[in-house]
Amino acid sequence: MKKNDIVKSILGSRLDHSPLDSTVYAFAPTNIALCKYWGKRDAELNLPVTNSLSISLGNKGATTVIRMIDALQDRIFLNDVEINLDTFFAKRLIDFLNLFRSHHFFEIKIHTNVPIAAGLASSACGFASIVKALDELYQWDLPLSMLSVLARLGSGSAARSVWDGFVEWHAGIRPDGMDSYGEQLDVQWPEFRVGLLLVSQKEKSISSRDAMQRTMDTSPAYRSWPKKVSEDLQKIKQGLRSKDFKLVGKASESNALMMHALMLTAQPPIQYSTPETLLLMQRIWKLREDGLSIYFTQDAGPNLKLLFLDKDFHIVREHFPGIR
Ligand code: PMV
Predict the structure, then answer these.
(1) How far is 307 from 196, CA to CA, in rounded Å?
(2) Closest ligand 1 atom to Cα of 36
(3) Rounded Cα–Cα distance for residues 149 and 177 (Å)
(4) CA distance between the termini of the chain
(5) Distance of CA 286 to CAs 199, 225, 244, 280, Å?
(6) What is the percentage of the chain residues whose pLDDT exceeds 90?
(7) Pick from 117, 111, 122: which is nearest to 32 by CA?
(8) Any idea of the CA torsion for 83, 85, 87, 88, to the nearest 10 degrees?
(9) Which among 34, 104, 308, 324 is placed 20 to 30 Å from 237, CA to CA?
(10) 168, 52 contact by CB (below 8 A)
(11) What distance lies between CA 260 and its chain's CA centroid?
(12) Residues of 124-140 as b/e, b for ≥16 C-beta within 10 angstroms?
């Protein structure tokens, strides 16, 4: 199954809509997975092996500003810098836009307020905001579940970034992935905080796409991952429903550590943590021993995301003044 076929079956006659003759804007939040997506059952369509669950980060994310231009090629800007169309970044974006357009070109400006490619899900909010902007530009008026499917074609975790709050991305079972989209959970928990602890803003050494594939192909422990995910997911959902922060924190941290353990057992091994990441983990565990309810999660990068409750914000900031 190809991305083009999926787009056709979702958009149908909407593919003939002409773009509006104006500039449109759309924002999508970045999301941090509490239960991770690690491994694809279909690499072309970004269909995951397991469900995953995330929290969207309010006003941290990406804004896409797009308009049709009278030109022979696109113009792409990332955080106010024009991007050379021969770069990997531009090619990936142009390929994505090609799924939706006929013969016109765009000026597309993406602004993010999260560091790019440092495990902070910038591609997730990027693709989600692009899809929302296209929905507006072409007046598709699609339900968010279908925007989630389209965003997934750009980057897997983007399927969760079309929503606010706590979101579960269903792996689905269909080969065409029509049942693989994000869904907002009916949980309101404004006291739940995520703090970014930046270790490095450098580009990651290996992309999450390649790291996932290598883990699936070579880690002898990967076969234990679906069971681990379903146990953690159950605990996290139960904890969210009953506002049991410890249950959510413990299962989330354990899930992230298992994902990184799988990577360490891949061939060649993949290690996103730096010595500083490990020292920070030890500090968090010590604080917990001393009674503070604080946990972490980690994605495909050296940075940690602290999980804690609003009431502990001041004490957390005393220990980690650089927290964002
Ligand atoms: O969507 P991708 O290809 O950037 O992969 C995201 C992978 C993790 O961030 C490590 C986990 C997740 O569920 O977000």
Answers:
(1) 9
(2) 13
(3) 8
(4) 41
(5) 19, 28, 21, 10
(6) 91
(7) 122
(8) 110
(9) 324
(10) yes
(11) 17
(12) bbbbbbbbbbbbbbbeb
Q: Is the CB of 157 under 6 A from ligand 1?
A: yes
What is the gyration radius of the CA atoms in the chain, in angstroms?
Answer: 20
- Residues ≥6 apart with Cβ < 8 Å to 137: 19, 20, 24, 66, 67, 68
Task: For residues 142 and 13, give the distance between their C-alpha atoms in angstroms, rounded to a whole number.
Answer: 13
Rounded CA-CA distance 182/128 in Å is 11
pLDDT of 120 > 70? The answer is: no
By most ligand atoms within 8 Å of CB, the mutation choice from 37, 114, 168 for ligand 1 is 37
Instruction: Write the secondary structure of 8-48 as one string of H (helix), E (strand) and C (coil).
Output: HHHHHHHHHCCCCCCCEEEEEEEEEEEECCCCEEECCCCEE
Identify residue 215 by its one-letter amino acid code.
T
Write out pLDDT tens, residues 165-204.
Answer: 999 999 999 999 999 999 999 999 999 999 999 888 777 7
CB 180 within 8 A of CB 170: yes
pTM of this structure: 0.96
Q: What is the pLDDT of residue 116?
A: 63
Separation of alpha carbons 82 and 162, rounded Å: 26
d(CA 167, CA 164) in angstroms, rounded, equals 7
| Distance in Å, CA 224 to ligand 1 centroid | 19
Q: Which of 97, 209, 99, 96 is nearest to 154 (CA)?
A: 96
204-245 pLDDT, tens per residue? 789 999 999 999 999 999 999 999 999 999 999 999 999 999
Average of per-residue pLDDT across 4-13: 97
One-letter amino acid for residue 226 of the chain: P
- Inter-residue contact 12 to 108 (CB < 8 Å): no
Please tell me the distance between residue 93's alpha carbon and the centre of ligand 1 in angstroms: 18
Tokens read off for 78: 């990332």
Q: Which helix (H) or strand (E) holds 67?
A: strand 52-69
